[in-house]
Amino acid sequence: MKKNSKKYSYFLFLIILISVFWQCARRGSPTGGPKDEKPPVLLFADPKSGVTQFNRNKIRLIFDEFVVIKDLRKQLIISPPMENFPIISPMSASKKLDISILDTLKPNTTYVFNFGSSIQDYNEGNPYSDFKYVFSTGNFVDSLKIKGKIKDAYKPKPDNFVTIMLYEYNENYKDSLVYKDKPTYVTNTLDSLETFELNYLRKGKYILVALKDKNSNYRFDQKEDKIAFWNEPISVEDNDTLPPYELTLFKEILNYKPARPTQVSENRISFGFEGSTDSVKIKPISPIKGDFKYIISKEPKKDTLNFWFSPKQSDSLLFAVQKSQKIDTFKVRLKNMKPDSLLISNSFSGELPMGKNFAWRSNIPILKVDTTKIKVFDKDSLQLPFKTKLDENKLEYSLLFDKKYNTSYRIEALPEAITDFFGNTNDTLRVNLKTKKLEDYSILKLTIKKELQFPVILQLTNEKGDKTESELYFESAQKEYVFENINPGKYKIRIIEDKNKNKIWDTGNFLERIQPERILYYPNLLEIRANWEVEEVWDE
């Protein structure tokens, strides 16, 4: 009986002991009642925030409850930036945080540690938001500030975690600093803001730049980053007189750089490039046969030029590739490869949208077309007159004819109607098309009261804004802007101010101090149904 009593007491003791440890492990986590939504409270900082003549390498923060650190590398912004990221410990739950500074601090400088939302309570994850710890290595804390807003050149809303930077503007400043040196001051919009504020600044002149800094290195990488800049140096003198700065992020066109060309078929060499291929000239400079001929075409939606040549060469070809004053030479050793076969596809099949033209698309440049072998018929088999258009790359051949609603069309091309660069010709081509009824479409009438810089490109896009469904171009202001033949769906409207009048949107360039062309987005999403006539007024 005594043995059983001892066993019972022993197990009871174990249960009580485990319970005590469990409660300790939970660190006072509530078992019921309202959810804790209060953030941690900083009880003590050693040294205190705002201290001057700072000459230590360690800071201690003490909170009223257990805290943890989350996304420290993203959330903690130190201004001026440090070469070595400080050590914050412990990373596990604790009521105290120690900051170990690894850098040699600059003299007479105000430092700001903006922790963003990285410090959170242990139980519920409530952040101690936008906590800033400030100290100065000099006799006073700098107190000036600037503020502003971030926009995106092409999207309705900017990215999050945008870095805003100030570079001291003096006799040593060069624009190349943005590519290789860290800024004088820095802040970040973090994950939820489109506005920014740079605090604790010293009086002076600065260059204001923003980056979507993918590598988080405070340096502009043209391949990876978006950039924004204020056109002129800014003067930080008096907080009461500084206007808010609006910065527009854009992705630059990459600097021109040719890649080594490669042979991709028996009679085609592909030239790849970084940057724009506009005005690029490719010329063979090696000895060639007298009957040698070539043609160059741009590959659709790629920065690639195709060099088509005939007849086949036995050894190699040497090329000069020129853009402006830059000339590169490349040698391509030729191999035995299969020739390209002529492939012709239809731009539309089945439905022919009103306002669009039917076209044949070729994979090899088109050399000539015999229009006598091409016929367009309506639903009554009546032959219709048409005009033709060959695009500048000689890869798309369009047929232009009058179209009616709810009408069937038949288009035929007899053999040898289309001849490509190598003399290949088509087999018989036939396609049946039909337009939709008038009542299947809608009309959008837009009155714009905003002040615009003409000419403008007016675009109707899909809901995501990544596909243009319809486009209009206007040299001057109109009483009404009308989109016709709109399919039912959800749409956005945007306006591009075409400053250089080339009928496309152009991005900016930091070194050339060119801002991207302005884009305005209509604030409302439009839902359009069949047979509607929609009227909208844009006055915001």
TrEMBL record:
Per UniProt, the keywords (alphabetical) are: Signal
Outline the extent of the SbsA Ig-like domain: 36-137
Q: Which Pfam families match?
A: Big_5 (PF13205)
Spell out the protein name for this chain: SbsA Ig-like domain-containing protein
